[in-house]
Amino acid sequence: MSTKTFPLTASQLEELAQQVPTPFYVYDEVSIRNTIRRLKSAFSWNQGFHEYFAVKATPNPFILKVAQSEGCGMDCSSLPELLLCEKIGVTGEDIMFTSNDTPAEEFRKAKELGANINLDDISHIDFLEKTCGLPDLICFRWNPGPLKGGNSIIGKPEEAKYGFTTEQLFEGYRILRDKGIKRFGIHTMVASNELNPQYFIDTAVLLFDLMREISSKLGITFEFANIGGGVGIPYRLDQEPVDLARVGEGIHAVYDEQIAKGLAPFRLYMECGRVITGPYGWLISRVRHIKQTYRTYVGLDACMANLMRPALYGAYHHISVPAKAGEPDTMVCDVTGSLCENNDKFAIQRSLPTLVPGDLVVIHDAGAHGHAMGFQYNGKLRCAELLLREGGSLLPIRRAETVDDYFATLDFDAVKNFRA
What pLDDT digit, counting tens, does each position of 384-412 carry? Predict the structure, then answer.
């Protein structure tokens, strides 16, 4: 059985919490860098392999700069994400723009930046052309439908809103070819938080087979294939991390087989987010109240506005109490926040050391899709983020929101003159 670690001692954490009000996030820069390096090493056999970090996972410019310095591009899905990349100097084909139900201004900005534009629907060819003209290189997102099973987060491919059908792919690439487009890419993403290495290898088999068929029938050559992300992390103690080396080796074999069958060599892209930052981000919170009714409730000063995954997906996040490490888990409790929603729970009937108000708890594996999914319902404010750097220094990379931030979009002077 694996264990969950946290890079600060109990005394270091308490000292930090005296300086930075809880709740707050801590990210480990060294571990993030090392994971990127392991991913790149697993695919070093492919000349031109490129990891596009999924901005939506952890959209903080300091985190993005770390990824950029390790050679990552950026996977974007909205105008603010494109602008965030532009602000840190990521442009051109170092951006993969994959969106759905896309407004015209986002296509315009993606083309202005020279991004790889990955279309989600065949009707978007005409929409893109009328909006800003077709770029030199276009990619399509493939939805394999019942050919490939999905998982609980992203759902069954045939029920998902994303991507072209197989038939639409052939028609879409034919349309582009006839319009004079010479550069092509292809993309698929059919799972999220998947822990089975074989899943990604099997996906590559399907995608590379399809590429060879399209190339043969339409006479086009693919420059790249983006096999998406979806690499999971072991949230639970009895789970194991994905063996990235095995995934790389398996896809290498599939690639070589397809090249031997006549498929032209191509660059392999991925767009991982969760596996890079997820295990290396922690939400720190302090116990506020202990409530005894039909159950024991441990109330934190964090809530689902700080970490939404348990309420949204029923997701498991391990919780530890550094100051009570080694103590028996004798308290069975629900760990809750203060939101006026009964699903505002980080854990249900979890066994923990006996907690009292004031204890600091660490919620693990919160480095991806944690802070990014925050919201302001109930007037809750999003918390600060800190980056643990090599050598042990802690750098504030986002301040906590204030009430003034919450009111910033309101005009109270106009309210005074409003007659209801």
Answer: 999 999 999 999 999 999 999 999 999 99
Name, in order, each residue with C-beta under 8 angstroms of 78's C-beta and a sequence gap of 6 or more: 99, 106
Average pLDDT over residues 309-335: 96
Q: Centre a 10 Å sphere on the Cβ of residue 152 and count the other Cβ atoms it contains.
A: 12
Tell me what the mean pLDDT of segment 311-332 comes to: 96
Residues 6+ apart with CB under 8 A from 178: none
| 317 closest CA partner among 346, 343, 297 | 346
Q: Can you name the residues that pair with 26 across neighbouring β-strands?
A: 282, 386
HEC string of the chain?
Answer: CCCCCCCCCHHHHHHHHHHCCCCEEEEEHHHHHHHHHHHHHHCCCCCCCEEEEEHHHCCCHHHHHHHHHCCCEEEECCHHHHHHHHHCCCCHHHEEEECCCCCHHHHHHHHHHCCEEEECCCHHHHHHHHHHCCCCEEEEEECCHHHCCCECCCECHHHCCCCECHHHHHHHHHHHHHCCCCEEEEEECCCCCECCHHHHHHHHHHHHHHHHHHHHHHCCCEEEEECCCCECCCCCCCCCCCCHHHHHHHHHHHHHHHHHCCCCCCEEEECCCHHHHHHHEEEEEEEEEEEECCCEEEEECCCCCCCCHHHHHCCCCCEECHHHCCCCCCEEEEEECCCCCCCCEEEEEEEECCCCCCCEEEECCCCCCCHHHCCCHHHCCCCEEEEECCCCCEEEEECCCCHHHHHCCCCHHHHHCCCC
- Domains of the chain: residue spans and CATH: 29-276 (3.20.20.10), 278-407 (2.40.37.10)
- Give the mean pLDDT of the chain: 95
Q: What is the C-alpha separation between 221 and 349, in angstroms, rounded?
A: 55
Q: Is 279 exposed, middle or buried (0-12, 13-18, 19+ CB in 10 A)?
A: buried
Give per-residue pLDDT as tens, 48-71. 999 999 999 999 999 999 999 999
Tokens of 405: 């931030």
pLDDT tens digit string along 341-375? 999 999 999 999 999 999 999 999 999 999 999 99
Region 160-180: mean pLDDT is 95
Q: Which residue has the tokens 């996040």?
A: 317
Looking at the annotation, which residues are catalytic? 340
Residue 151 pLDDT level (bands cut at 50, 70, 90): low
Q: Which residue has the tokens 């992300």?
A: 229
State the pLDDT at residue 2: 57
